[in-house]
């Protein structure tokens, strides 16, 4: 039972993690011939952007100019205000080229798909809906095809329903409404922001596609030379082609492989444990094995019998491990929400069952081969004597058990060091100052449809009245608007110009900046400190901007920690006629806009009234609990316009938790595996030392009878265990240093070879070894010499 439980823990952990790896890196994606699907992006190398949305004009040139794709489709993620029964709800959607569904290999289950005419004529009044939307909002009524719904205030006809099994993985969340793109060729090479999916022709390799698309991009560059970026700059234009699986799972591949390696180490420790148990059991069965030899059994037959027994144990452990894996998968799906993409694909399939069977068989051979070989070699005359001692229990068997014990210590140390590094990294990550106060900060999003709010003055009036209404609510301290919330943005930036300086993207400090559109109340609501100058007012007459400390000190360094940025003039993009310069009015503290582990980039804030945007995020500082204020916020929005839902409502602390979900998940799992490894190692070390002490009972009795003091006996046994533990620690440190590169990409401000972590983990493991050795050592020191001398 001990062997089966130890194996079940190791095999179950391996199966659970392999289920995730299988879904992400092994199992075919849920599209027809998915290995031939690729994603195509524009590349702006001078801006450091390898994945930049493709313009309409570029898409049409790529579609007609390539020689490697069967077809090339386009899509653009959007969101819609869906109004049903006088209630507005925000739903995810996507605008697509007519050929996208056929490229993915799917069709509708009712109605029709889009046609090329739907794209050419910009027939934006039709939609295909997902199975989830059809069942959840329309009760699964098949008559919904041909009916109309209200999206963004427009009447839209439902023309098709997608199958329940279809899932579009490149948007998160998955789109529920599909509408046709309005594809129109034009002279503006920057209009549109599309993501492209292509299906490679049969026999065309990914590298061939990259070479061909580079040639197509070169042709575009020559025809429209110099090809300009989104704001008139020379951005270093090119094209990049990525396999669809790499696009979806490339960001989690390293972490999953590290976890898979960790559970493999746990399984090896379990194998070492069971191998020690079998060595002890084989030593007890030496007379039985000797009799079999005496009756004519060959060594091969004895080895085969012992391996069959070990394999039976491992299969039993595998069966119990599979049950543990089912529980573990549920835990992974619960804990991995927000950190693992497309969790719905994680399930036990034939490949997972085959993996479990395979590692069960391999495990049986791994832990059974040493006892089988050791037990098949006997001195028959000695073993068959009534009082003879077996070679199995002699020096050779003891040495093998000691080697296994040292190996357990080494493997455990590798896991403990890895967990320690991740824990230290995660602790430093959570201590990073985001640049604002998160407590009692409620956030949400609002998006006004273009058709209803086409004029800027209507957009400004809506948001201004909304803020005024919200600030009068009980429990609201202040409220503001921002175009993109902190901790939710990407790492990229836009080039900018400085009045009186050359436009240089290749200087020592990259001349790029993130732009945020904010209301005057934003800085007070977020409690972002003002460092120099002033903040915005509600009535700004001249074009101005506020910048962060990184931008101020990077481009206008002053003295005594100050900058010379106040009064300087900047412009987003290259200098060009008709675009006003913005005067820097103030400098505020840095804010982590992308995530906690990304250093702040230069940041520029512009007033909402001067650059109104229809889609904005609301931030509300409350004196009450968040749930109590959300319904009041919704009520104020509904009073202003019942067709505009307040959506994506979360506290800022919830958004922070989402940004650190992946490192938290990885740290928790690796720490759990390290703890399991320590438990298994402790049991294994205790078993080895206890067995060695048992075999030396006669010797210990003689030493005590000759006057050896109990403390000396105690220290003698402890010394033997600690020497083995030290050998394991040295081996484990060397192994961890060799494997440190695997962890390098998962750490934040912690080197992969961190002396303090290595030392602390080594001391912890040695303390575990000491604790495991102490009980057998104490038992040896308390032996009754008369009873020990009678022991054979």
Give a structural overview.
With 792 residues, the chain is an alpha+beta fold. Among the domains are: 217 residues, no CATH class; 193 residues, no CATH class. 48% of the residues lie in helices and 17% in strands. The protein contains 23 helices and 22 strands. The strands form 3 sheets. The chain has a 6-stranded mixed beta barrel with strand order 3-4-9-6-8-7.
Please give a handful of descriptors for the protein shown.
792 residues, alpha+beta, six-stranded mixed barrel, six-stranded mixed β-barrel, 17% strand, elongated
> What form results from the Cα inertia axes?
elongated
Q: What portion of residues belong to β-strands?
A: 15-25%
Overall mean pLDDT score? 85
Largest beta-sheet details = 6 strands, mixed, barrel
Radius of gyration: 34 Å
Structural class of the secondary elements? alpha+beta
Helices and strands, with pairings:
Elements: H1 2-26, E1 37-44, E2 49-52, H2 56-65, E3 69-84, E4 87-96, H3 100-104, E5 110-111, H4 116-120, E6 126-129, H5 131-138, E7 148-151, E8 154-161, E9 177-180, E10 195-200, H6 206-223, E11 237-243, H7 244-249, H8 253-284, H9 286-294, H10 299-335, H11 350-375, H12 380-384, H13 395-430, E12 441-447, H14 456-471, E13 476-482, E14 494-498, E15 512-518, H15 522-526, E16 530-533, E17 544-548, H16 549-555, E18 569-572, E19 582-588, E20 603-607, E21 615-622, H17 626-640, E22 647-651, H18 652-659, H19 661-695, H20 697-705, H21 710-744, H22 755-781, H23 785-789
Parallel strand pairs: 4-9, 6-8, 15-20, 17-19
Antiparallel strand pairs: 1-2, 1-10, 1-11, 3-4, 3-7, 3-10, 5-8, 6-9, 7-8, 12-21, 12-22, 13-21, 14-15, 14-18, 16-19, 17-20, 18-19
Helix pairs in contact: 1-8, 1-10, 1-11, 2-6, 8-11, 8-13, 8-19, 10-11, 13-19, 13-21, 13-22, 14-17, 19-22, 21-22
């Amino acid at each position: 039972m001990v062997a089966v439980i130890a194996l079940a823990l190791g095999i179950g952990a391996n199966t659970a993690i392999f289920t995730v790896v299988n879904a992400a890196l092994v199992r075919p994606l849920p599209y027809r011939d998915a290995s031939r699907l690729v994603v195509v992006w524009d590349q702006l190398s001078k801006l450091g952007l390898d994945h930049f949305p493709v313009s309409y004009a570029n898409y049409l040139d790529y579609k007609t100019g390539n020689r490697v794709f069967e077809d090339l489709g386009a899509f653009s993620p959007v969101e819609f205000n869906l109004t049903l029964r006088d209630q507005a709800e925000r739903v995810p959607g996507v605008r697509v080229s007519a050929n996208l569904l056929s490229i993915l290999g799917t069709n509708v289950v009712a109605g029709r798909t889009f046609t090329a005419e739907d794209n050419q004529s910009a027939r934006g009044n039709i939609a295909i809906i997902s199975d989830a939307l059809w069942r959840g909002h329309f009760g699964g009524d098949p008559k919904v095809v041909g009916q109309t719904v209200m999206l963004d205030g427009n009447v839209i006809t439902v023309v098709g329903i997608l199958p329940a099994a279809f899932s579009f993985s490149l948007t998160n969340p998955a789109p529920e409404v599909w509408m046709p793109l309005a594809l129109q060729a034009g002279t503006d090479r920057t209009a549109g922001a599309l993501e492209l999916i292509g299906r490679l022709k049969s026999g065309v390799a990914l590298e061939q596609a990259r070479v061909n698309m580079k040639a197509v991009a070169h042709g575009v560059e020559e025809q429209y030379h110099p090809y300009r970026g989104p704001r008139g700059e020379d951005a270093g234009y090119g094209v990049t082609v990525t396999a669809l699986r790499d696009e979806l799972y490339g960001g989690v591949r390293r972490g999953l492989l590290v976890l898979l390696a960790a559970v493999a180490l746990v399984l090896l420790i379990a194998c070492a444990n069971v191998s020690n148990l079998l060595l002890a059991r084989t030593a007890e069965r030496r007379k039985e094995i000797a009799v079999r030899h005496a009756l004519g059994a060959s060594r091969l037959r004895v080895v085969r019998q012992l391996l069959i027994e070990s394999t039976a144990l491992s299969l039993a452990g595998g069966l119990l491990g599979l049950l543990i894996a089912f529980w573990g998968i549920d835990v992974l799906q619960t804990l991995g929400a927000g950190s693992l993409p497309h969790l719905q694909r994680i399930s036990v399939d034939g490949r997972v069952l085959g993996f479990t069977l395979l590692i069960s068989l391999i495990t049986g051979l791994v832990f059974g081969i040493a006892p089988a070989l050791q037990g098949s070699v006997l001195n028959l005359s000695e073993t068959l004597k009534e009082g003879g001692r077996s070679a199995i229990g002699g020096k050779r068997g003891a040495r093998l058990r000691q080697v296994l014990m040292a190996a357990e210590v080494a493997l455990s140390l590798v896991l403990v060091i890895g967990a320690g590094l991740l824990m230290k990294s995660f602790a430093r990550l959570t201590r990073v100052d985001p640049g604002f106060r998160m407590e009692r900060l409620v956030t949400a999003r609002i998006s006004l449809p273009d058709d209803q709010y086409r004029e800027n003055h209507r957009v400004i009036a809506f948001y201004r009245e909304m803020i005024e209404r919200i600030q009068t609510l009980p429990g609201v301290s202040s409220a503001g608007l921002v175009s993109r919330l902190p901790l939710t943005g990407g790492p990229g930036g836009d080039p900018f110009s400085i009045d009186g300086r050359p436009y240089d993207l290749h200087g020592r400090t990259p001349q790029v900046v993130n732009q945020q559109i904010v209301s005057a109340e934003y800085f007070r609501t977020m409690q972002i400190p003002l460092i120099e100058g002033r903040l915005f007012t509600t009535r700004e007459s001249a074009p101005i901007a506020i910048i962060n400390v990184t931008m101020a000190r990077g481009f206008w360094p002053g003295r005594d920690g100050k900058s010379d940025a106040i009064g300087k003039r900047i412009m987003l993009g290259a200098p060009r006629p008709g675009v006003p310069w913005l005067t820097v009015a103030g400098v505020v503290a840095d804010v982590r806009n992308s995530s906690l582990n990304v250093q702040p980039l230069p940041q520029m804030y512009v007033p909402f009234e001067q650059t109104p945007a229809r889609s904005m995020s609301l931030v509300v500082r409350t004196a009450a609990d968040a749930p109590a204020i959300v319904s009041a916020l919704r009520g104020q929005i509904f009073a202003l316009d019942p067709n505009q839902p307040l959506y994506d409502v979360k506290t800022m602390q919830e958004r922070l938790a989402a940004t650190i979900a992946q490192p938290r998940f990885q740290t928790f799992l690796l720490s759990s595996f390290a703890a399991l490894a320590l438990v298994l190692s402790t049991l294994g070390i205790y078993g080895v030392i206890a067995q060695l002490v048992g075999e030396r009972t006669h010797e210990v009795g003689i030493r005590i009878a000759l006057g050896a003091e109990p403390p000396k006996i105690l220290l003698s046994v402890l010394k033997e265990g600690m020497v083995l533990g030290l050998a394991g620690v040295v081996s484990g440190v060397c192994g961890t240093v060799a494997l440190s590169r695997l962890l390098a990409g998962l750490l934040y401000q912690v080197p992969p070879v961190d002396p303090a972590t290595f030392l602390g983990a080594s001391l912890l493991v040695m303390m575990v070894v000491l604790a495991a050795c102490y009980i057998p050592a104490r038992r040896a020191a308390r032996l009754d010499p008369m009873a020990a001398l009678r022991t054979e």
